[in-house]
Each structure stands twice: as C-alpha cells, then as structure tokens.
Here is the input.
Amino acid sequence: MDAENIPQTLPRMSATFDPHSLAEIRRAAATGIYDIRGGGTKRKLPHFDDLLFLGASVSRYPLEGYREKCATDVWLGTRFAKKPIHLKIPVTIAGMSFGALSGQAKEALGRGATIAGTSTTTGDGGMTPEERGQSETLVYQYLPSRYGMNPDDLRKADAIEVVVGQGAKPGGGGMLLGQKISDRVAAMRNLPMGIDQRSACRHPDWTGPDDLEIKIEELREITDWEKPIYVKVGATRPYYDVALAVKSGADVVVLDGMQGGTAATQDVFIEHVGIPILAAIRPAVQALQDLGMHRKVQLIVSGGIRNGADVAKALALGADAVAIGTAALVALGDNDPVHEAEYQAMGTTAGAYDDWHEGRDPAGITTQDPALASRLDPVVAGRRLANYLSVLTLEAQTIARACGKSHLHNLEPEDLVALSIEAAAMARVPLAGTDWIPGGQGL
Amino acid sequence: MHVVDLATTTRRELNQQLHALAADTNDTHWRIDNPEGQHALVAGLDAPVTVEIMGHAGYYCAGMNKLATVIIGGNAGVGVAENMMSGTVHVKGDASQSAGATAHGGLLIIDGDASARCGISMKGVDIVVKGSIGPMSAFMAQSGTIVVLGDAGEALGDSIYEARLFVRGEVKSLGSDCIEKEMRPEHKQGLRKLLQDAGVSEEVSVDEFRRYGSARQLYNFHVDNAAAY
Ligand SMILES: Cc1cc2nc3c(=O)[nH]c(=O)nc-3n(C[C@H](O)[C@H](O)[C@H](O)COP(=O)(O)O)c2cc1C
Here is the structure.
C-alpha cells in the first residue's frame, strides 16, 4: 500500500475532556478563581421529560376538554395558620431577591402573579414597596442573612418562608457582587456600597430542628398565628428534611431541586451539589404520608419547571403546588434573542447568558443599573408572565382531563410511567410497558 | 401597672394583649409574673411601653422589639432581642447564644455574661455587656456597637463589616479581617454615651477599652479578577 492511501485517523475530541472542560481548565489556570454564575444546572439530568402520562382509555374515563370542570385551586397553610392562603393556580413565583433582580422585575413578578391569582415571594434583601404594592399575595422570606428583615414587613406579608436552603446550592449562602450593590440595595442591606456582599449559609440564632421549632413559634407569636409558615429546603435528603420541617411546625414545605436557579453561585456548586427534583418528590411525599400529614402540610416543589406537563407531573407525584423562578424570568424577557447583539458583545448568546451577578443584563432584569432596568416595563412584562402562567395551567388541565381528573390534585403516580430506568427508580413509577419499578420503595 | 401572671395566663394571651396596644396607650407599665423560661415572651412589641419580666425567659425574648423597654429580671435564652429595631432590652442576669442577633437598632444591656455569637450579623443595634462575651461574637457584624466590660472569646468579629467593638478585658483571639483600631476622640465620645446609657459610666472609664473593627480586606473578593467572577 502506498502512503497516500492509508486512511487517516480523524481528530477525535475526548468525551471526558470535552471542549467545555478544557476551556474551564484554561480559564482556571489563567485566573486562579472559580467560575461564578447565575441560573441552574446546565447539564442533562433525569427530569420530568422522562415521565409520560397514561391517558384514559377503556379502563379509565377522560373528562371533556373545554367543558367539564378541572379545578386548579390550592390552599396553603391549613395546618396552623388562622389565615391560610387560597391560590387560583398551583404555580407560585419563587423567592428572588431585590438586589439580584431590579425593582422593575420584582414589580413585574408581582403584577403577573396577581393577575394569575397566585403568590409571589420576596428574597434575600427584604421587601420593596413596589412588590408589596403589586402582589396580592406575598410570601416574605426569612433568610440567614436577615438583610432588610423587619417586623413591619413581616406583619405585612401573607405568609413567611423560613429559608434553610436552595436547590442550586444546598449548604451554601448567597452572594451579591459589588457591581450590583447600588445605594438602594446597600441601604436595604445595611452594608457599604460596592462591596461584595455575602449572605450567611446558617441562620444566626438557631441550629437544628429543635431550635427551628422554637423559631417558628416565635414567628407565629409575633404575627399572632395568622400567617402560614413555610420552610424551604434544597433537595438533598428530602425524606429527613421534610420530616424534620413538619416536626418543627411548618405549615408548608418548599422543596427545591438541583435544577433550581440562583442569582449567583460557584458553577461547581450548582452542578454538583443536591439532587434533581425528580428524585426528591417521592421521598418527600413519603415522609408526609408516614407522618399522616400529606395534604395537611402542603408541599411546593421547584427546580426546572418549564411547562404545564412539568406542573402536572410534579402534582401527580404528590406535590400540592410548584414554584417557578427561571421560567418566570424568561417570561418577563430574560435571555430573549431580541438582545442577541448585546449578548454577543458580552461573549455569550441568548439562552446561555448567565453572568447575572455582573448586573449588565440587557433585558433589565438581573441588574441594578437604572438605564438597563428601565428597559423593562413592569406592566407589559407582568402581562407576559400572567399569560405564561395561564398557559401552564391550561396545559396541566389538558393532561388532567385526559386522565379523567376533575382537579389537578387528583393526578396520582398511577397516571405515570417512566421512559428510563433512572426515572422509574427516582419517581417510583413503572418503566413504560412494564410493571417494573426499579429500586426499593423506601428511602 | 398591668400585672399578668403566666401561671394563669397563656403566653399567647399575653403577647396578643401586648400586640393590641395602640402607640398612645395609657397601659404603659406591665409586670409579668412566673415567666418560667417560656419562649418568645413579649416578642414583636410595637408600642412605647415598659414590660418587666420577673424571672428567667426562654428563647427569643423580646424578639424584633420596637419602641418598648423590656426588663428581664433573670437570665435570657438564645436570641434575646434578636432583630430588635428600637427600644431597650435589659437582661439582669446572663444571656445565652446569639444575643441581639441581626438587631437593627435600640439598646441591649446584659448585666451578666453573654454566650457565643453575641451580636452576630448585627445591623445597627448597640449592645453593652457588663460581663464577658463568648466565642464568635460579632460574626459578620454589619453596623452598631458592642461594648464589653469583661473579656471576649475566640474569633471576635470574624468577617466583620462596619460594626464597632469595644472590649475592656482580654480578647482571646480576633476572627478573620478583624483588627485592633486606634481609639480616637469620636470613638471615646460614643463609648462614653453608651456607658452612660447602660448606667456604668461611673464605674469604668473609656480609657480602659480597646477598639476593634474591620480591616476591610475581605470586602471585595479578589478584586483584580472582579470582571471574571
Ligand atoms: C435570580 C434568582 C434569584 C434567586 N434568589 C433567591 C433568594 O433570594 N432566596 C431563595 O430562597 N431562593 C432564591 N432563588 C431560587 C428560587 O427561589 C427557586 O428556588 C428556583 O429559582 C426554582 O428553580 P427554577 O429557577 O428552575 O424555577 C433565586 C433564583 C433566581 C433565578
């Protein structure tokens, strides 16, 4: 054989040392610092897409689409609160801080949620008058940092959410880098302007479930037992965390999976700590059932909810409601291709922009720059969010009716099958076409 | 004087009565008998009244206090006066951990010692401890002042922001980014005022104290690389 005819070995990229990993090694070598970014996990994880609904057929009756009622409302906080919350739809807006988000974005979230008949949530940094004013139902987060924490706002809230952790960074605190610490943010947080602000990862005045119980008692006493008290945890050991939250006296448990977004955290934290929401719901529900508390203490789940199918699947697995963060921001206009030229100028592209901590968001959402923030019209953006919430609900109803359910809460695990063995094991539903549920039924 | 006996009245009833007080109430003096270390006593007050607790209090006594003066005759549990906004809380005995945690304003006086994490994440409160304070006190303290007539435990002022710390006795160790600072006249003046407010200006002199605060080295994380974070 002459040399010219020998087939060439094609250049082959390593699956392990893929272009992203190589670039990260080089970036780390050049800078000596880890990558910080916003958003949630970007790699593929077992998720709701790995589940399918079994519609009604001979053995089950469907309900008529558009005609027969399929209710969507949800009560939250019925265990102890004198004034539980009644929402029209089981999709709530997750806590996102003023500071991470512009005042306009917070206002838009309140407007959209109010039109849709659901609640919105404050975040690290306290409550702004804009969001209180525009949110019919507002949940006030009680975080380790206690930035902006004030009893008047606590009394103004409709519910209180004690944040223990977040799915994007269970065990981690928050950070808001100096670029976003404007005068107003600095004043609300009682910190010098322009410094990198770190939010503590542990509460300053309680440790462990026994103390949490007393803390919740204090919050109830201060608000005269009127307001529902939620406890939010990142998904790690959901069975135990949910059981302990119930034991501590929570009215509602919020469980946030690893896909959940964050304003800013180390990439390594986002991608490698916590478990997907798909794997967390069943153990959480089991904890509630073992304690006789399923539907008495409500479960809100979040982390990567995008469409009505995700909502329906989360509810079928036993959640009472879901919360959305990232999707709500996208509905407002985050990462919209209309800003492509500006994303390109920052070395990224629409859909991938995640340097939210830098405060240069062309959509005016994750910024404190007045010029950028003023690009977001809270009324228009709020309307978009309301539209999106309406579609989520209609989609979930479509599925529920097809499964013969007159309320979204009547969806059940028996309506689901899984497309992969992983999803079958995590969601504890059979692999499609089989009666096989891999793994134990226990923890 | 309004007397509430917790042997016969529940904490819920007591707190509810106090919360119902209007800002211009004439019921300005309350005495609470038999507190027996109950938690969340007189938490969430929002009126200029004086409440005297005749004994020990549990966790979060006078939590989130606004305007009121609360006097605790005995010891106080974890988180006394946590997140106080204004008013005065005076503990006649010792205080447990996280005394005055995250408090934004007002004055917390502790006649005895305070345990670990006194003034953690404080946001403007003034705290005067006549005894000593435990380890990790003033952790991430943002603003306000702690005055300690006795000693301070390990890692005082770790990751401190703009709070001011005055310690008369020994400091076991300073936490990261906390350093001793010069006592200038304005500091002495502020300290003198606080000693007066706490009723100890006759017993001790401002010259016996040393001042500690932030070196401000951790304020911006690797500032050279800021754009790359
Ligand atoms: C910009 C941004 C800011 C956030 N800020 C907070 C916060 O202050 N407190 C909190 O508990 N969670 C915070 N989160 C997390 C959300 O509350 C929620 O758990 C998460 O976004 C849900 O997942 P999803 O984004 O996939 O819908 C934030 C998320 C985002 C995207």
